[in-house]
Amino acid sequence: MTPVVEVHGLRKVYPLEDSPGVVALNAVDLTIAPGEFVAVMGPSGSGKSTFMHIVGLLDRPTAGTYLFAGDDVSHLSSDALADLRSRALGFVFQAYNLLPRTTALENVELPMIYAGVPAALRRPAAMEALDAVGLAKVAEHQPNQLSGGQQQRVAIARSIVNQPNLILADEPTGALDTASSEDVMALLRRLNAERGMTVMLVTHEPDVAAFAKRLVTFRDGNIVGDVATKERVLA
Amino acid sequence: MISFAQTIRLALTALIRNRSRSLLTMLGVVIGVAAVIITVAIGTGAKTSVADQINGLGSNLIVVIPGSVQTTGAKTGTGGASTLTAADGLAIATLPGVAAVSPVVSVRTQLVANGQNWQTTVSGVATSYTYVRTWPLAQGRFFTQAETDDTAKVAVLGQTVVGQLFPGGSNPVGQSMLVKGVPFTIIGTLSPKGQSGSGQDQDDTVLIPYTSALERLTGSTTVGSLMVSAADANTIDSAQSEITALLEQRHRIVAGQPDDFAVRNLADIAQAASSTASILALLLASVAAVSLLVGGIGIMNIMLVSVTERTREIGLRVALGARAASILRQFLIEAVVLSTGGGAIGVVLGIIGAAAIAYFAHWATSVSVGAVLLALAFSAAVGVFFGYWPARKAAALDPISALRFE
What we know:
- Chain A is α/β, with parallel strands linked by helices.
- In chain A, 34% of the residues lie in helices and 28% in strands.
- Chain A has a single domain, classed as P-loop containing nucleotide triphosphate hydrolases (Rossmann fold), CATH 3.40.50.300.
- Chain A contains seven helices and ten strands.
- In chain A, the strands form two sheets. A six-stranded mixed sheet of chain A has the order 6-7-8-3-9-10, with helices on both faces.
- Chain B folds into two domains: 4-53 and 271-404, no CATH class; 82-259, no CATH class.
- The interface between A and B is medium-sized, with 29 and 25 residues.
């Protein structure tokens, strides 16, 4: 099967004046196959966020190759990258980033608007995604009427609504209490298991990383560990 | 990729989410456009009413008045001399560029009729007067040429005089009236004409044959003025020079000597008046344009604040697959919707304001479709112009830092 993500010698240097610049990623090789659930860990400054941004097509590498679902995306235009993001990627952020004063349903519809999905198809698809995260009953609620855990589940519904090749979750539990964190992680785990969604999770909490099937550890711009995690029994 | 219609809906949704701020942002443009509409309405209205008043004086009217005379160093003003005669009028009537002439002999005197009395200006005129002044009758008839030739004692009353002498609303036609003690028969009434351009009540008048006025009221042979109707609006200038040439010949004015009469063309006055009104309207419109400009700057200000405040939202939209162009378009559309919406509200308020001014201040106002379209187009342009920079800023945001913006 074609890997969802395949990077070779990925390097990212942030240029600085009068110095060689800051090396965020040195030379990273990684392959993520469809259906995987990968947790990326590492201390601050290890390059894990930079890696996620490049994988999420929000940033470009300084050197190296990046094949996304088999296609070389290193040289695509910003517009082509934007179109690819709308179709093939789903994002979950630490701060949820839901539009305020906008219902959960409309928030979930937003990626479909940018993907050019006809209006008539958007509502049922958004309802289906909200149902998948167990929030169909709050479809008409606005973010400020939802708990943090519910807001993050709405954000997850938003990330899956276009059936993307890859879901990128950046510290998705960073703003949540333990119970809500477990809910959110269990949900991601279930979407991975039941729907075969490929998930890449960036976190610095080992408890959260334990929900993944594979653990990749970054340090100083290099991958220093890549192991299968012990299967954790779903609650 | 997102469609244009969809971008418009995104922009509208974003504006509705911030309803009160959107309305406040519009306020500058609302006031600017309302000001434009009202000032242009007042300007146009003033222009039309000046034109109406001048047209109300008569069709293609030329007025000949006596000139100034100098007696032992003291000059009387224009019209001070008594040099024009009814015969001058008859001669002018034969000129090719002239349609009709009426002498005017005015006397201020007391009227008595129906047990009432009233002081007014009695004017002796020719049968052509109603044509020259474009002044139809309300009741009865005007006097005839035969009555003029016979110095008949017949009179036609203006509406103000009718109101004063016949306050009960009884029919004045056929009644008798004393003019300076001479009994006249009232044969008709004039339709109301209202105030003249200088604010005089034109209906406060009585018309009698000029022959009767000369013989029975003034006892002189000279007339106060000659009212001439040119055959055509285009021949007013040539008629004017024909009249000047004819009168110079009749009054034996040697070349180089000043004329003892003056020929006034109302078209000139009309033009001067309407160009004054245009300058006024232009001035008002430019003041209004400045307020629109200020409104536009207000929109730019709020859009810049909005871009900063919605940095995370912009980052999210980019992450979700918005192209830079669609971010730019969304913010630009938001600005244009704000300014055009403000413009539309301003147009409505301007129309209401113009109507209110017409109602309460009794100023003629006229809202033109052109002014409305211009104001709307201008406010849309304000939106594009002042919205572009904030929209560019939004589109140029780096999504990664935008997503982390606190």
